[in-house]
Design brief:
The longest helix is centred in the last third of the chain and has 19 residues. The chain has 320 residues and is α/β, with parallel strands linked by helices. Helices cover 35% and strands 15% of the residues. Helix 1 runs parallel beside helix 12 and helix 5 packs across helix 7. The chain has a 7-stranded parallel β-sheet with strand order 8-7-6-9-10-11-12, with helices on both faces. Strands 2-1-3-4-5 form a 5-stranded parallel β-sheet. The chain is built from 12 helices and 12 strands.
Length: 320
């Protein structure tokens, strides 16, 4: 009997075709609507491989029903949606999709920084709604990006890619990370800083740290109060690192200038969320890796990982 694969969202036929040639493949029939928990639990109890999205919660309770499951391949770099300890206990391999999305996500991060600093969203909204009646000396005046200081929290691959882009804008680059990056410091002139110092000195703070117990809520009221009143905060890694209540207050009270957000504590973010009422928030729906080329490359890594495990090989991007 062929091994069975379940895919939790509808994906392009040409991407799934290599799996269909070898295995029995079942796929949720919607791209926009997430698979239900009931269906997911039923499938986990039966299948040999599970292809998941970041929006799928695969917790210990869900994994208890797994009897034949050998691999969970997650369409993301992050995998905090999966209880990796529970998977490890049951001998289930978990893989992710690193590296191929580095430059694309860095593009988004820097683009979001530019849009936030220069108030693209409020300017476009006014134009579309007929509010642009005349050129005004200080109309939609934002903050410069070139020649300023960027502070990057989380200097992994994506952080370094953002920092290289910042060099092109003649920015001074500060970074905070668990480990120093002496080679990057020497080659590009990046400067390591403790978190408080980075927050005080930066004109633009970009969060690229992974979501862990250590980073959960690491940017709260105290940290935001250390930032310049002219500073922007850009969050593109995972929701939950920034305290959204504290951020709302800081933006509302003009403790900081603006925020650009690609990630949120709850996703999709509720349409009536207080942050979405603020004109100094630029928000996009978790699209860091959303280019056609990159998403297809990520999916190819998932296909390869599933195939490798089902054929008894070690997958390249194993996290547990």
């Amino acid at each position: 009997m062929k091994p069975t694969v379940f895919i939790t969202r509808k994906l392009p036929d040409e991407i799934v075709a290599p799996l269909k040639e070898k295995y029995t493949v079942r796929m949720w029939d919607s791209e926009e609507v997430a698979v239900t928990k009931a269906v997911l639990r039923e499938e986990i109890a039966q299948v040999d491989a599970l292809w998941t999205m970041l929006s799928d919660t695969i917790d210990r309770g869900m994994l208890e029903s797994a009897t034949n499951l050998k691999v969970i391949s997650n369409l993301a770099v992050g995998f905090n949606n999966i209880d990796t300890e529970a998977a490890k206990e049951k001998g289930i391999i978990v893989t992710n999709t690193p590296d191929v999305l580095t430059e694309t996500t860095a593009d988004l991060a820097f683009g979001l920084l530019l849009a936030t600093a220069r108030q693209f969203n409020s300017a476009e909204k006014e134009l579309r709604q007929g509010g642009w009646l005349s050129w005004t000396p200080m109309g939609f005046a934002g903050m410069d990006v070139h020649g300023t200081t960027i502070g990057i929290i989380g200097m992994g691959r994506i952080g370094e890619a953002v920092a290289r882009r910042a060099n092109g804008f003649n920015m001074d680059v500060l970074y905070h990370n668990r480990n120093r990056k002496p080679e990057a410091e020497e080659e590009y002139g990046f400067e390591f800083a403790e978190l408080d110092d980075l927050l005080k000195r930066s004109d633009h703070v970009v969060i690229l740290a992974p979501f862990t117990e250590e980073t959960k809520g690491m940017i709260g009221e105290r940290e935001l109060s250390l930032m310049k009143k002219t500073a922007t905060l850009i969050s593109v890694s995972r929701g939950g690192i920034v305290d959204e209540v504290a951020l709302y207050d800081a933006l509302k009270n003009e403790t900081i200038f603006a925020a650009g957000l690609d990630v949120f504590e709850t996703e999709p973010i509720p349409i009536r969320h207080p942050l979405l009422t603020l004109p100094n928030v630029t928000a996009v729906p978790h699209i860091g890796s959303a280019s056609v080329k990159t998403r297809h490359a990520m999916m190819k890594l998932n296909v390869d990982a599933i195939t490798d495990v089902l054929e008894g090989k070690e997958p390249k991007n194993r996290v547990v």
